[in-house]
Amino acid sequence: MSLELFPGKHLFVDDHCIEELRYAQRVLNQPVKYESNPVLAGELPWEKRTVHLNSLHFDRERRRFRAWYDAAAVNVIGTRILVKDNPPTEVHESHICYAESDDCISWERPNLGIAEQERHPGNNICIPSMRPPGRTSLAHLADDPFETDPARRYKLIYLDQAEEGKVGGGLAPDSKLRLHAHSADGIHWQHLPWQREHLARLFGVIAYLDETPTGPIDPDARFILYGQRGSRWKTRQIGRRDSNDFVNWSANRPVLESRLSDQPAGLEFYRMEGSVVNRTYAGLHLGMLGAYHADLRRKFDPARNDGVTECQLAYSRDTVRWERWTNPFLERGEPGAFDYGGVYCHFPAITDDKLYFMYGGESNRHGVKSTASVGLATMRLDGFVSVETEGFMEGILVTRPHLWRASAVRLNLDSMRGSVRVQLQNEQGQAFEGFGTSDCDPLSTDALDTAVTWGPRGSDVRALGGQMVALKVTIAPEDKLFSYTLVPET
Q1: How far is residue 359's CA from residue 38's CA, in Å, rounded to a whole number?
Q2: Domain check: are 161 and 191 in the same one?
Q3: CA distance 309 to 362
Q4: Are strands 267-273 and 285-294 parallel, antiparallel or unpaired?
Q5: Which domain holds residue 171?
Q6: Which of 100, 275, 424, 468 could bridge 401 with an S-S bond, Cβ 3.0-4.6 Å?
Q7: pLDDT in tens, 25-67
Q8: H-helix or E-strand containing 486?
C-alpha cells in the first residue's frame, strides 16, 4: 500500500543505498525559518488565546496551501486537573478553523458561514463545538488519494465535549468524545454517529499507564498514525496505530523510545508527525519527532511536566522500526522568541521545488502558561541530508548495485563551486565502457533535477538494462549531493 511520492528517487537520510563513503560524509541540513515568524497567530477574537496547527496540505490543482488548526478564545469555561501530578489548568473555548494561502506566509481566513455565532460573526470556523461554549479540537486529518467516493476524500478525527451530565460531558480529558467525519472539500463535513467505545483521544497518556498492545500490526495499512504513549518507566515514547477505514484502529504499539545512553539525560519523545496516508518519500517513511528534554532539577515532578521541545528527524523503511538523527532538525528560538519554549513540527507540504514546514511554537516551557502560534521554515526539495566531502579533498560515494531498469540518471545537487561526475560500474567496481568518470560531463550547477551525461552517449543508459549497476559519484569540496533518481524505462 505504501505509495512512492518519487518513484526511482533515493535519499541519503539513511545509509540504505550507500555501499561506500570515501573522504565524504552525510550531513543533516536544517530548514530555514522565515525571518518574520510567526505566520499564523491569534488575531481574531475566537483565536486570541492560542493557535495550534494540525494539518497542512498543498493543493496542486489550485496551487494553494490549506491549513486546519485549533483556535482557543480568551474566555474561560472551567478548570480541570489532568492527573494527580499536574496542577489545575484553565479550560478555554476552542474551535476547529480553516485558512488558505498562496505562499504559506500570508493566510486568508474565509468567512465560511458554518458557525454563525453572535460573539464571533464572519468567522472561519469549520467545526464548532456541539456544546457552545465548548472545546472541540482536531486530532487527525487525511486527504485520501485512494478514496473512490469523492464525498469521502477528506477524513477527520476530532474531539468534542457533550452537555454536562451526558457521556462525554465535563472538563476531564477522558470526558471528551472521539468523533469522525468525512468531506468532499475539507470544509463542509458529514459527521458520523458517535460510537460508545470512542472515548477520549486516540493517542494520549493518562498517568503513563498504557496497556500492553495486542493484535496484529499491518505495515501496509491504508492509514498510519504516530503519537505519544506511556511506558512502564513513566516516560513518554512514540506509539503507532494503523487502520484501513480511518475509524477502527489497531492497538497503540511502541515504535520509538529513548535509551538510557541517550544524551542529554531526561530525553523523552513527546510526539511524532508523519504522513497520515501510508506513503513514502523516496522509499522512506519520515517523521518530525518532538524530542522533549525534561528538567530533572525538579525533584517533586513525577510527570516530568517541566521541559522544552525541539524537532528531530526520524526515519523508517517499514513504519515499525524507527531511527533518528540525534542533532536538531528544527531548533527552538532564542529567549523571548515565540518558539523559545518548544517547536512542534508538522509533516511538510511538498511543492515542485520546496518543502514547507509549519510548526507550533510555544513561548514558554512545557507546563508553564504560554502563548502558542505557528511558524514557517522551508527547505529545498530532497534537502534533508546531503553527501559532502570531509575537508578540502575530493570525496567518493559508491551506491549499492541496482538491478538496472533505468533510462537516465538525474541528480539533485548544489555544485556551483565544484564539479560532480558519475561513473556507472559493475559489482567489481569496473566502469562500463563509455560510462567511466572520465567519460562523464562534469556537472557544475545548482539544480533540483538535472541529467547526467556521458559524452556522445548522452543521458541514455538503457544499454545497461538487466545488469547490476552501481553509481560511483565524485564530488569536490563545497559540493552538496541531495538525491539521485533512476528514471524508469517506461
Answers
A1: 9
A2: yes
A3: 9
A4: antiparallel
A5: 30-201
A6: 468
A7: 999 999 999 999 999 999 999 999 999 999 999 999 999 999 9
A8: strand 480-488
